[in-house]
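Supplementary material to the annual report.
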Amino acid sequence: MGRIAGTVVLALMCGFSLAQSVRSLGMAGLVLPGPEAAYLNPAYAAYPAGQYGSERGLRLPLGLLGLVLRPESNPLPGLSGLANLTKENSPFDFLTFYNQLTYPNEFLINPASSKAFLNPNTGYPEIQIVVEANGIQITDYRGNPIPLDLELGEVGVAATKALTPAPLLRVPFSLADNLFLDLGIFAGGFGLGLSPNDSLRQALRSGQLSPNSEYAAVLSTSAQSGISLGFGYAARLPDLPIPNLAPLKLYLGSRGEAFYGLTYLEGNLSIGLQTDSQGRFDPNRPPVYRGTVFYSVPGSGNGFGVRADLGVVIETQSATLGLGIRNLLGFVRWSGTELRWNGNPGDPVSSQAERSSFGFVPAIFLNAATQVPLEAGTLLLGGDLGYQSRLYGRIGGEYSFGPARLRAGLGFDNGLRFGLGAGFVGAGFSLDTALTTHRAPIVGDTVFGLALSFGWNF
Amino acid sequence: MPRLAYITLLLLLGCSASTRYTLNVDILSFIPQSQRSLSIPAGSYRELYPSPQGQLVPLPPNLDIFERGQITIQGTLTNTGSIPMSGSYEIRLAPENDTNLEDNTGGDLGLARTGFNVAAGQSQPFLTTVDLSATENSTAFNILKSGSFRIALRIEASSGGGRFELTAARIRVTGRPFALVR
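Predicted assembly:
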C-alpha cells in the first residue's frame, strides 16, 4: 500500500518536473540528459538516473501568492462587488493582474504595470487615442505609440496536432526486456493571442489608413486535453569501441503513443472594419467577422491519434549527447463542431467538422552535457537545441559544492531569456529557487520572476 | 462608432482603475482642404462654417465615463479691405439629431463668443480653448457625453473684405474606462 502511495507521489513529481522544473528554469529552461527527458527523447528511458542531477521537486504556485499579496493584482475585493476594483481610488491594475495570472508558478518581482503610462502632470496613467479622418493612433501621453500584442501560452497547435502537450501527469512503468509503458494525462497546448492584422499594425505605426482595406484584430486560441498511453522500448546497446579511446556507450529508444482526446479548441477569428475608397471608416458599417472556431467536447466529439518517436543517446567518458525525434510519423483525427464566419453579417454557420493530420511533422530535440571536476566542487555544463513549430535553444551550467548548487543559463525561446538559480540538497529533501525573466505584455520592459520548488528525496 | 468601442476593448487590458483615456479628435482633418479657408465678402456678413448642419464628430454613444473635454480652435483672420474689420466668432455645438446649429432649438448652443478687430491690410491669429466639465459649460459637456455631436463656427463680420482660415480644430475628451464597470 505504501509502495502504491509512493509510486503515486513519485508520478506526481515526475509530472510536475516535466512541466519545467525550477532547476531547469535556473538554467534558462535547459533540459539535461536523464530519464526526466524521456518525453523528448525515448532513449533516455534506459539512461541511468541522477547522472546529471535530478529534476525532482514540486513547484510551488508562488504566483497565486503574488496575485493576492499585491493590491494591484488582487481580484478578491471584486468578489463583494466589482465596484471595489473599478472605483476611482482602487489600486487594481488589470495589466498587473493579467501579467501575474499568466505566470502562476512565479512570484513576479516587477510585474507589468499601467503606471508605465503615468502622466506626471495629472498624476494618473493616460492613454491617448488620436482620431483623424484617415488615421488612428494609440499613444501614451507623450505621443509614443503603444504596441497591442498580447500572447499567452503556445498559440497554434495546428502544425503538429499529433504532438500532445507535455503530460501534466505521467506514470511510467518498467516492464521486462527493456520495455516500458507510460500513462499520461495531458491538458495544455493552451494559447490565447490577440494581435492586430498587418494592415492595422501598419496603420498604428504610421497613423495613416489606406483605402479599401480591412483593419482587424485577430484572436487566436488553442487548447487540448486527453489521456495518452505510451509503449516503448529503450535499451543500452553494446558499447562501440573507438581505437585509442574509451568505448562509447550507446542507448536507443523508441516509443509509440496513442491518445484519446477529450477536448480540443482551435480558433482564429478576425474582427475588422473596412475603409471606403477614400481611406475612411464609415461609422455606419458593421464590423466584419472572419475565421473559424473548431471545438470538440465530450458528448459532441472526440479525438484519437497515434505517433512514433525515436531517440538515441551517445555517452563518451566525459560527455553525453542525445537526439530525439518525436512525431516521426503521426496520425490524428478530431471530430467536433466548426463555427465559421465568412465576413457577412449575422450568426456564424455551424457544422460538423474534422481536423486531421497524417505524416512526418517532426519535433527535434538535441541535448548534450558534460561534467567538469574542479578543485573544489563540480561544474556541470549543458546545452540543448530543439525545433517544435519554432527553433529554441539554451546553454547553462550548474556548480555543485557540498549541498549547495548555483546555476545560470542563457537561451532563446520566443525571445532571449536567461536564468539564475540556487539550490540546496539536504538529507531527504531539496530546495530550489530560480530567477527568470520575460518581456512584459504591452509595456514591453523586462519582468523578473522568482520560482521555488521543494522536493523529497527517497 | 464600433471602431472606438473595439479599440477600447483592446486597450482595457492595459488599464488600471485610475487610467484615463483621452480621445483626441482632429476635426480639421474631416474638413476638405478647399473648405478650410473662408472668404469674407465686403459689407455685413454672417456665416455658419463649415455648413449649417455643422461637422459631425463621431463618439461612442452614451458613455457616462467622460470627466472633461476641451475644444480648441486656431486660425488666422486677414483683412484684405481698406477699412477695419470687426466682428465675432462663436463655437456652435449640437446633438447629432439637430441639423440646424443656428436656431437655438433642438439642443444647439453657443460657446466662447469672441470678438475681433483687425486693422486694414493686417492679419491676426486667433486661438480659443474651451474647457468642458460638469462644472464648466455643463450643458455643452452633456452634449459630448450623449455621444456623436455636431460642431460649427458662426462668423459675423463687418468689413471691406477678408479671409478666415482655420489651422487647427481639435476636441479632446477624457474619461475613465473602469467607470463602465460598476
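Residues 2-62+105-456 of chain A form one domain.
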